[in-house]
């Protein structure tokens, strides 16, 4: 009955658009409603309680758009809130952590995996926990990289300062001889070339966005919830974008990373939900 | 009648404690209630509308503590919200911009002033506007320094990376031959030595916190609202601290920059106000 309803996706800001990009690539039929919580970002340095409260509000807002499933396209919110909210809401909710963990476990050859992310994600230990459940023999080393998001947002993607900061953050992981590194924050794929050069070509970089879209596709198919082919073809509102602040800035950024031009982003007051 | 009531101070996080420190130094008799909006920080990269809404909520919360005056100890909130909220509330509200502007105009000898701050503060043009009203002949050059706050929060106060970023941000101001530089963000005094070394000893650095406390003192005296000597002497709640997230982290930081140990910080839900 809800087959043709949109998928709801939320993130603290623009980072989750890397997940939207993968969903569009893998499921071009599906409608999407995206919410970026730009009035309260970042999530990575805030507490579990606060992130759970924000996640509930974000989901309640997306439910007003009659979404059929929720994707938490933010590592910190997936780490802190997924377990709580998936019990509280009736529709399927998936995060980005499990998909990233599965890919990493499948990719490692020497059983040594590194995870980089925000203080919230790394401090939660969630990647270690999920990876250990998949394979208790794997060793996981986490490293918080709090300056990566501000550096990306300042546009210093290829810069000597970013190289220097990345070298410091990653030196500990290099010392542990990891062969697989999870980019555990949606902003980090934008630093992929810097991180890859420092870690060396023997280290596999895992971007959870790709794997999350695959997991979502499997889930929708399994439950018979995939959109009917062609149903959204002429829908001008196939992709809808909402933020809690700075809608125009978001539109410009979204257009730069999504395959189609984003016409409009609407601003809402998320504190009301 | 409200003489012995506390002064209400708010900021997006811990930065405003530099203003509290100055108030304590200059008015040791006064009670203070501080609110740090740690669940929604930073303010510097968000819109005018959002910052006005947040400022109203922060003031409404402080009013529940029966404060006699409000200090907006945040440059961005002073830039965006002061003009609006001082009309909406009956008690005196002061910000940090005017005090910084007055000091800078008094300090400059060649009539060239620089202002560094967040994107919000610099983009608002408020310092230029206030300085021009004081002296239309002064030239003002603003420069946003978005990485300074994350660098301070990462603890890189004396570091080659901070030197490199500061050199880039400040090169434009050096090229304008300014002789006075306003540290237009409450975090920036913590980078004072780096900024001072790059700008050179001929450039006067202005910290609005000091001058704001002076302005507040004059205002309270003028209106007969100063605390009666000794009235708060034995009050265990003379200084009260509230945040919207991460109370323990705040307590530790506040203790490190205030003259007395902060015993307790209480967490509130600011979205309810």
Characterise this structure.
- 2 copies of one chain form a homodimer.
- With 273 residues, chain A is an alpha/beta fold.
- Chain A has 2 domains: 7-95 and 210-272, 3-Layer(aba) Sandwich (Rossmann fold), CATH 3.40.50; 97-208, Rossmann fold (3-Layer(aba) Sandwich).
- In chain A, 45% of the residues lie in helices and 16% in strands.
- Chain A is built from 11 helices and 10 strands.
- In chain A, the strands form 2 sheets. Chain A has a 6-stranded parallel sheet, with helices on both faces. Chain A has a 4-stranded parallel sheet with strand order 6-5-7-8, with helices on both faces.
- In chain A, strand 9, helix 11 and strand 10 form a beta-alpha-beta unit.
- In chain A, helix 1 crosses helix 10 and helix 8 (160-175) packs across helix 9 (192-199).
- The radius of gyration of chain A is 18 Å and the shape is globular.
- Chain A starts with 6 loop residues before the first strand and ends in a 6-residue tail after the last strand.
- The A-B interface holds A 38-40, 45-47, 49-50, 53, 146-147, 150-151, 153-154, 160-161, 164-165, 244-246, 269, 271 and B 38-40, 45-47, 49-50, 53, 146-147, 150-151, 153-154, 160-161, 164-165, 244-246, 269, 271.
């Amino acid at each position: 009955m809800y087959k043709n309803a949109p998928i709801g996706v939320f993130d603290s800001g623009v980072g989750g658009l890397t997940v939207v990009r993968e969903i569009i690539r893998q499921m071009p039929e599906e409608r999407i409603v995206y919410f970026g919580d730009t009035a309260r970002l970042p999530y990575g340095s805030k507490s579990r309680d606060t992130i759970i409260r924000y996640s509930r509000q974000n989901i309640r807002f997306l439910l007003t758009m009659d979404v059929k499933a929720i994707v938490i396209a933010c590592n910190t919110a997936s780490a802190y809130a997924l377990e709580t909210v998936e019990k509280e809401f009736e529709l399927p909710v998936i995060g980005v952590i499990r998909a990233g963990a599965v890919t990493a476990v499948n990719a490692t050859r020497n059983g040594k995996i590194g995870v980089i992310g925000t203080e919230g994600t790394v401090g939660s230990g969630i990647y270690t926990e999920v990876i250990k459940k998949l394979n208790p023999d794997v060793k996981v080393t986490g490293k918080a990289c709090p300056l990566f998001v501000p550096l990306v947002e300042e546009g210093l993607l290829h810069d000597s300062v970013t190289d220097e900061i990345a070298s410091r953050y990653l030196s500990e992981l290099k010392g542990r001889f990891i062969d697989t590194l999870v980019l555990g924050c949606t902003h980090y794929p934008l630093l992929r070339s810097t991180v890859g050069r420092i870690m060396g070509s023997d280290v596999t970089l895992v971007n959870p966005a790709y794997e999350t879209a695959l997991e979502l596709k499997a889930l929708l198919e399994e439950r018979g919830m995939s959109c009917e082919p062609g149903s959204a073809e002429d829908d001008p509102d196939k992709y809808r974008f909402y933020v809690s602040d700075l809608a125009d800035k978001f539109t410009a950024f979204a257009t730069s990373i999504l395959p189609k031009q984003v016409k409009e982003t609407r601003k809402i007051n998320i504190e009301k939900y």
